Amino acid sequence: MKYSPARLAAGLLLCLSALSPALAQNVPQYDHVVLVIDENKNDTEIRNSALAPYINNVLLPQSADLTHFVAEQHPSQPNYLQLFSGSDQGVKQDGLPGTPAEPGTLAAPPPFHTPNLGREILNSGHSFASFSESLPSVGFTGETFSSDPTLNEYVRKHNPAVEWQDDAATQASNPNALGSSVNRAFSDFPTTDAGFAGLPSFSFVVPNEQDDMHDGSITQGDSWLQTHIEPYRQWAMTHNSLLIFTFDESDFGALQSDPNNQIITAISGQNVIVGKYSEAAISRFHLSDAASPDTAINHYNLARTIEGMFGTANDVSLVAQNNLETNPLGGSILPITDIFATAAPEPSPWLTWGMGAVVLTLAGLRRRAVSQRKAQ
Predict the structure, then answer these.
(1) Rounded distance, CA 42 to CA 250, Å?
(2) How far is Cα 96 from Cα 79, in angstroms, rounded to an integer?
C-alpha cells in the first residue's frame, strides 16, 4: 500500500488529537484528596503579594486557580460547617454550638445528626480523617489547646468533623456520626512518598492559628504550606491524587473593603488543567460589588465536587440533604468539572510544534506532486 502525503498528514493529525487532553464530563475519581484550609484573608491580600511567595510563584501557577470564589458568611465557624456538610447547621457565630456561647443559636448541641462529607465518604467504602495541628490527642473534644499559654493554637471551631464525633452512636441512633479515630493530630500527617500513599482517601487539614494566617503572618502561613504541604502536592501530581487549598472567609475586619467575601481557592494534582477559571457556567451566587463579576462559586460547589470524586453525591448533594440553605439564584449546586482532563497526556509544546511542522511539510509535498503531474 502506498502512503501518500495526505494519508500521512491525516494520520499524524489523528495522533496529535489523541494526545490532547479532553475535558472530563464528570468529576474524576482520585485515590487521595487533601484539603487545606487557611484563615481570614481576602483574595487581594494574597494574590500577587510578595508576602506569599509560595502561593503566588508555585501553587497558583501550577493549579486550577478559581478566581471568583467566595465564602458564605462571617465569622469563621459557619463556613467550615458549610464546606464540610453543605449547611451551617444553624450555627451563626464562633461559640460552641448549642450553648450560650453561640448567641441566638439555631443549632442543637453536638454531636450533630446531619449528613457530612466524612460520613458520606466512609459509607462509600473510602477512608477519611481530619488532621488538626496542635490537637493534643486523638478524639480531643475541647474548645482550645495551646502548648504555649501566650499563643492561640488549636481551636475546635476550625475542626468541623468534631461536631459529629460520637463513639457511642449506632446506625439507628445517629447514622451520620463519626468515630473519634478520625479526629487526628497533624503530627500524624505523613512526610514521605510511602506515607502519602497510606493517607486516607480524603484528608481535611487544619493548621493552627499561628500557621493558618489567623494570628500568624501571611508569610508564616505561606512558609508552613511550602514546608508541610508542597511535598504531598508534588507526589500527588503523579499518583492520581489532589490538593485543594482554600480559605474559610475573607478578612472579617476588612469587610467594608471586600463586601464579596472573596477568597483564594486552588486545586492542584494529576489531570488538573492549569489555568484561571471564573466558573461562570456554574455560578449561582450574587456578588454585591458592582466592580466584580455578577456571580461566583463557593464552598457548596467545592463540597459538591468532593462528593463527585468519591461517588457519594448521586443526585442528592449535601446541600439538598441538609435542606437548611437555599440557593439564592435557584437551581442545583453544581460540581466543578472543567478543570479536569481525562487520563490522556497533554503533548509538550515542542511535540505539538514538531508534528504541526511535519504536517505542513507533507501537505506542501503533496501540492508539489500534484503540480508536477499536471505539468507532465
Answers:
(1) 4
(2) 15
Candidates 359, 301, 274, 311; CA nearest to 60 is: 274
What are the structural domain ranges in the chain? 1-20+347-376, 28-339
Could you give the CA distance from residue 13 to residue 20 in angstroms, rounded to a whole number? 11
Predicted TM-score (pTM) of the model is 0.82
Please say whether the beta carbons of 130 and 188 come within 8 A.
no
The mean pLDDT value of the chain amounts to: 82
| C-alpha cell at position 299 | 464552598
Q: Mind spelling out the 3-state secondary structure of the chain? A: CCCCHHHHHHHHHHHHHHHCCCECCCCCCCCEEEEEEECCCCHHHHCCCCCCHHHHHHHHHHCEEECCEECCCCCHHHHHHHHHHCCCCCCCCCCCCCCCCCCCCCCCCCCCCCCCHHHHHHHCCCCEEEEECCCCCCCCCCCEECCCCCCCCEEHHHCHHHHHECCCCCCCCCCCCECHHHEEEHHHCCCCHHHHHCCCCEEEEECCCCCCCCCCCHHHHHHHHHHHCHHHHHHHCCCCEEEEEEECCCCHHHHHHCCCCECCCEEEECCECCEEECCHHHCCEECCCCCCCCEEEEHHHHHHHHHHHCCCCCCCCHHHHHCCCCCCCCCCCCCCCCCEECCCCCCCHHHHHHHHHHHHHHHHHHHHHHHHHHHC
Place 319 in a pLDDT band, splitting at 50, 70 and 90: low
Instruction: Give percent of the chain with pLDDT exceeding 90.
Output: 59
Q: Which fold has domain 28-339?
A: Alkaline Phosphatase, subunit A (3.40.720)
In the predicted structure, residue 245 carries a pLDDT above the cut 60 = yes
